[in-house]
Amino acid sequence: MLDARNSSQLKSALFAIATIVLALSLVFFPKEALEASTRGLDMWWNVVFPSLLPFFIVSELLIGFGVVAFLGVLLEPLMRPLFKVPGIGGFVWAMGLASGNPAGAKLAVQMRKLGKISQIEGERLAGFTNSSNPLFIFGAIAVGFFHNPALGMILALAHYIGNIVVGFLFRFHGKNSEEMHLSRGQSPLKIIDAFSAMHQERLNDGRTFGKLIGDAVRSSIETLLLIGGFIILFSVLNQLLSLLGILSLIAVSVSTCFALIGLSPELAYPFISGLFEITIGAQMISQTTEASFLSQLIVVSFILGFGGFSIQAQVASILAESDIRFRPFLLARFLQGLTAACLVIPLYYLFYEPLTDEVSSGGVRIPASIEQGWHFFLEISPYITFSFLCLFILLKTMHIKKRFV
């Protein structure tokens, strides 16, 4: 059995070897690496940045103006009994559902830094408040890849119900640990109490509107730049592992497991790719015509819930800014992936297959405006990204100048 020193040395050697192999792969496959990097950049530029930025900025403003404290008082009777987190967890959950990964983790860390939640409560929040946003599920997956808006409803229901299930299960996480924040008890809550908490929170913040919105834009764009780096990195990593044949080797074992549980073995390789990067995997799954349609939905639902290693790395870097541990988050992602994959089966038979067997026509009637809205978003998204990056450079320049004045 290896002692601690030998184990540490082995880990260092493995990290060094993996990094050297990655560097050599970049040298031997420069064209493929560039193409993968461009794909990752394109997804960040056209989808991730413009879809997440408004939610990040608004969340910063809501925190600064005390609205989060207001909601925290009102939602305490709901969030505490169900999920064993303070009322402000309702705000984190709502913003996580609306804006998508990794907003839930980012807001959980913010609440922890502000002293609003304990470490255990932060781990519970980070565990179930991270999800794919509706725009990505309906637009990119249902419309963009499967060309069927009806599937968005099935995938979204499985995904968000899975969130609730994980949140309820995670109320038992750390139950033996000492909680820093206790319930308010059974005293009736009043709107005036919530308003007083909001007012006091705004006074404690003390920033003017101009200062607050400038900080919100700068902080949000810095986080999105970090996210973009991870997306590009894992897009390249996924391509290099594919070229080296490593993904194919792993897919052999996975295909055997898929065959045992009744899933199409042809989905093994796209599934492995999806574990690295959701978008790439989902696109490959939608193009695997040899697999049954239900198998495609189950595998897509799992990787949507799991999040992919790209998102795991993003969250790990965000959680590292606090004492919230990453391991509970990883367990929560696996549980949600498993739950969402299981939920797709009854939802499929309830809402889709009884109406039609034709994949192209679908069973759940969704307004055509969803597809039109998605294409309109893709048209204007590059201008949104470019405009806010210019604004970020301006704000950063002004901030640097103030430091030297």
TrEMBL record:
The chain crosses the membrane at residues 12-29, 49-75, 125-145, 151-170, 216-234, 240-260, 297-319, 331-352, 372-395. Residues 47-146, 225-319 form the Nucleoside transporter/FeoB GTPase Gate domain. It comes from the Bacteria. Keywords: Membrane, Transmembrane, Transmembrane helix. This is Sporulation integral membrane protein YlbJ. It comes from Shouchella miscanthi. The gene is ylbJ.
